[in-house]
Design a protein that fits this description.
Strands 1-2-3-4-8-7-6-5-9 form a 9-stranded mixed beta sheet, with helices on both faces. It has one domain. The radius of gyration is 16 Å and the shape is globular. By secondary structure, it is α+β, with helices and mostly antiparallel strands. A hairpin with a 6-residue loop joins strand 5 and strand 6. The protein contains 7 helices and 9 strands, in the order E-E-H-H-E-H-E-H-H-E-E-E-E-H-E-H.
Length: 175
């Protein structure tokens, strides 16, 4: 675990681990979340070369905070295994869109299905890290999205940035 000073508090960065979502829930159910705990940065992983090339983005760590992960568990009611597996879902998208609501952000569509709805993630690319270290790709949220024609509408609106070739997994394309 590394530390740095940022925004007047000590900021830590940890790597996503399978047991981290359970630990976050234990903190909530025990004494509650502390401000310092919620501010801990969590490195989820990295986007593949294929995704980075499609986005013309630098190869940076994909990072979020414990606060965002807590919201995924509490507000969006994602199961622990889904949160722990973000590197294998939202970091391996089947389509990427410009955000219709937030300038400079992207939305990734994963192949992960949660309660009959596809899991999406929203990101700000090449953002300054709170720890003051190298820039990161910042995950702002992830949740199951109602598939009511929204993705087709985003394509019609010209928001599609990249789409995996039908029948080809992202792992095959990355070779």
């Amino acid at each position: 675990m590394s530390t740095a000073t940022g925004f007047g508090t000590r900021v830590h960065r940890i790597h996503m681990a399978p047991d981290l979502p359970g630990f976050i829930e234990q903190q909530r159910d025990g004494k509650g979340y502390t401000r310092e705990f919620l501010g801990v940065e969590v490195q989820i992983g990295r986007f593949s070369r294929v995704v980075l090339s499609a986005l013309n983005a630098p190869d940076l760590a994909v990072v979020t905070t414990v606060n965002v992960l807590a919201k995924l568990l509490d507000k969006h009611k994602l199961m622990r295994r889904v949160v722990a597996g973000l590197a294998n879902s939202v970091l391996k998208p089947i389509a990427i869109y410009k955000s219709a609501s937030t300038s400079g952000s992207i939305v990734v569509l994963s192949a992960e299905i949660v309660g009959e709805r596809p899991l999406i993630g929203s990101f700000v690319l090449n953002k300054a890290s709170a720890s003051g270290r190298q820039n990161v790709h910042w995950m702002t949220s992830a949740y199951p999205k109602e598939n009511d024609g929204k993705f087709a509408q985003w394509e019609r609106d010209g928001l599609l940035l990249w789409k995996a070739h039908p029948g080809t997994s992202l792992q095959q394309e990355a070779r």
